[in-house]
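User: Okay, second chain of the day. Same drill as before: sequence in, structure tokens out.
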Amino acid sequence: MRAGVAAQDLDAYRPRFRRQAQVADHPADPVRARIESGDLAPGARLPSIATLTQEYGIARTTAGKALRLLVDEGLAEMSPGMGTFVTRK
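Assistant: Same drill. Structure tokens below.
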């Protein structure tokens, strides 16, 4: 550190990082609302990762996280090779 420069003076030059919102939550919200309203009945197929990617302009990874969030919440179940479906209540 240079002589005469206090550490707090350097704080003005340090980058500020903000915690990003959980992007995966956002695409899941409308799908969750459709499930909870009954628009998507138990056994109905949820939008695919590709469909979510196109509709929301998000990455495939983010779309997959959104679907897994619904599975973790107990609202859906994934069947490999078949898709993601609303769970029976």
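The chain has a mean pLDDT of 82.

User: Thanks, on to the next one.
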